[in-house]
């Protein structure tokens, strides 16, 4: 099996191209959401004026208004009405989001989409049963039980029928969602309306296949996963590697031979590709493209993301695998909720508080009490806001924003002093020749170097942490409970919490690149808008399928 094997085998069930319809729905969704934000900002400013808000807050509100284009002319698309089902409709289904491989290790994974749906009036929640380090079979069984319980909570719709559920899976989450429907079809056929797979390796992933191609590679990958995800020794081969193996071509071929997605469930499959070199997964996309010759999002090829018989959305914008799940922005308040294991709806979230240990407090220490660099260490102001009210640094990205701004300023100076690259008139994408000067690729290399240094510190911190922990146990002490001195305060730290895991570091790098090169995502639809358009397309497809079945009957 190799890239595109599933489409070649199931050519009789070719996917229906729904890209044009998706783009039309997306345009209407974006126009509506942006208009809502403008109205919200206007009301905020009016209320602030009435209550005599001070100048600093007024400036912040003005900045927020300009960011969403309040002062710009109304988008012509906002006046265009389009008839399609909406997530806010009274009879709309509920949405269950399923995270991908090791998804719990990435701060605020899929939060943008879930919060967007709730703001739009939809019923949406993140799955608490599907684990990022579990196999497809285990997650399928867990999802079945969760869906049945979710249905009980939802009750009947306005017509007195059971309210339906739509599964929305990103990456391996889409694979697990389809597996749940295949393995438990008769239990879920009257509850699940359909499934949306977002950048899912339904046919397999070339990256996963290459990382596990030989016994030596599997052993190396298992150990690397232990280090990167801060798992106990031995967990790599026992727990983490089997989940990765499930999205290899070999495993997907064997599974789909017996358990394909049942035809009764409508499916919308979303695929995208990396178009620029300024994304966090640009190197992965280059590797897959050079080795296999297929467009890909950095981890999954478009040919492998399409489910036979589905409505395929082949997104044309620059949208990598991280864009479908990582948070585009990270505020202090949002990160603190994540650290406290609070989900977007304000409830306790499952996995983050119990990753590899039964001791919740110990887990929090290992995962979330990492020493982050202060802005001052990078030559930036210690304050978290500048004179314009913009966030310079916070607990999640104390260095990312500051470093990205510094690197961007340096590149701007180089461009002014030399005949270096220039941005293409505000366009979203960069021309290939604009990378030849090395400015943006140099920025990416520096951020990768930052990541490597952080991982080196993490390894050193692990060794120190383990040694101190062992010494403390011999003396009857608990090093994790000792007070840690703040960076630069002159106090000695007898023990230090281990640095952040790879998931946190990757999200930090993603946020830094977004800050450094805002043009890449500046005018594209955000994660929530993309997911809402996919949901409307799925509901439209389900309605059409019901009408076809009724006509045949």
Give a quick rundown of the structure.
The protein is an alpha/beta fold and 553 residues long. The chain contains 19 helices and seven strands.
Describe the structure.
With about 550 residues, this protein is of the alpha/beta class. It has 19 helices and 7 strands. The protein has helices spanning about 5-10, 20-50, 55-65, 110-120, 135-155, 170-185, 185-190, 205-210, 215-230, 235-245, 250-260, 280-290, 300-305, 330-340, 360-370, 400-415, 440-475, 500-515, 525-550; strands at about 15, 95-100, 125, 165-170, 190-200, 265-275, 310-320. The protein has a 7-stranded parallel beta sheet with strand order 1-7-6-5-4-2-3, sandwiched between helices. α4 (about 110-120) links the parallel β2 and β3 (about 125).
Keywords:
553 residues; 48% helix; single chain; 19 helices; seven-stranded parallel beta sheet; alpha/beta
Structural class category: alpha/beta
In round numbers, the mean pLDDT is 75
In whole angstroms, the N-to-C terminal distance is 39 Å
- Total of helices: 19
Give a short account of the largest sheet: 7 strands, parallel
* Helical coverage, percent range: 40-55%
SSE order in H/E notation?
Answer: HEHHEHEHEHHEHHHHEHHEHHHHHH
Spatial strand sequence of the major β-sheet:
1-7-6-5-4-2-3
Strand proportion: 5-15%
Shape summary: globular
Q: Give the tally of β-strands.
A: 7
Rounded to an integer, what's the Rg over CA atoms?
24 Å
As residue ranges, the low-confidence spans are 64-81, 349-393, 418-443, 477-498
């Amino acid at each position: 099996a190799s890239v595109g094997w599933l489409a070649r085998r199931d050519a009789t069930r070719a996917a229906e191209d729904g890209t044009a319809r998706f783009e039309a729905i997306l345009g209407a969704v974006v126009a509506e959401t942006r208009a809502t934000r403008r109205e919200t900002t206007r009301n905020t400013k009016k209320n602030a004026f009435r209550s005599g808000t001070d100048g600093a807050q007024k400036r912040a509100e003005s900045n927020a208004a300009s960011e969403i284009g309040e002062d710009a002319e109304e988008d012509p698309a906002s006046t265009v009405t389009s008839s399609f089902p909406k997530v806010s409709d009274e009879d709309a289904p509920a949405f269950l989001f399923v995270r991908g491989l090791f998804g719990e290790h990435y701060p605020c994974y899929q939060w943008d989409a879930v919060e967007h749906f709730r703001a739009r009036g939809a019923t949406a929640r993140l799955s608490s049963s599907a684990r990022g380090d579990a196999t497809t079979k285990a997650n399928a069984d867990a999802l079945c039980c969760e869906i049945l319980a979710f249905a009980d909570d939802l009750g009947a719709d306005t017509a007195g029928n059971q309210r339906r559920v739509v599964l929305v899976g990103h990456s391996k989450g889409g694979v697990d969602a389809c597996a749940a429907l295949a393995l438990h079809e008769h239990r879920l056929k009257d509850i699940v309306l359909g499934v949306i797979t977002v950048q899912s390796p339904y046919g397999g992933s070339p990256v996963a296949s290459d990382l596990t191609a030989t016994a030596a590679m599997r052993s190396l990958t298992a150990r690397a996963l232990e280090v990167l995800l801060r798992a106990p020794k031995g967990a790599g081969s026992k727990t983490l590697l089997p989940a990765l193996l499930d999205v290899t071509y070999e495993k997907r071929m064997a599974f789909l031979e017996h358990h394909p997605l049942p035809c009764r469930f409508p499916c919308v499959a979303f695929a995208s590709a990396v178009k620029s070199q300024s994304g966090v997964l640009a190197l992965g996309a280059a590797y897959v493209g050079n080795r296999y010759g297929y467009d890909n999002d950095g981890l999954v090829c478009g040919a492998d993301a399409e489910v036979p018989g589905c409505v395929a959305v082949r997104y044309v914008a620059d949208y990598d695998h991280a864009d479908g799940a990582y948070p585009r922005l990270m505020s202090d308040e949002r990160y603190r909720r994540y650290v406290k294991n609070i989900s977007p709806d304000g409830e306790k979230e499952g996995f983050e508080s119990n990753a590899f240990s039964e001791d919740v407090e110990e887990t929090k220490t290992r995962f979330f009490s990492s020493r982050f660099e202060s802005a001052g260490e990078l030559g930036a102001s210690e304050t978290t806001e500048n004179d314009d009210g913009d966030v310079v640094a916070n607990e999640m990205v104390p260095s990312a924003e500051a470093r990205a701004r510094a690197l961007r300023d340096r590149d701007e100076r180089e461009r002014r002093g030399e005949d270096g690259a220039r941005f293409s008139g505000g366009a979203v994408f960069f021309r290939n020749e604009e990378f030849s000067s090395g400015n943006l690729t140099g920025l990416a290399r520096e951020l990768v170097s930052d990541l490597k240094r952080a991982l080196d510190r993490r390894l050193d911190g692990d060794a120190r942490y383990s040694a101190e922990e062992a010494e403390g146990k011999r003396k009857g002490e608990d090093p994790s409970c000792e007070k840690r001195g703040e960076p630069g305060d002159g106090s000695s730290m007898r023990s230090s919490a281990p640095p952040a895991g790879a998931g946190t570091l990757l999200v930090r790098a993603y946020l830094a690149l977004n800050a450094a090169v805002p043009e890449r995502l500046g005018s594209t639809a955000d994660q929530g808008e993309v997911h809402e358009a996919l949901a409307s397309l799925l509901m439209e497809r389900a309605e059409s399928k019901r009408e076809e079945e009724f006509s045949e009957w």
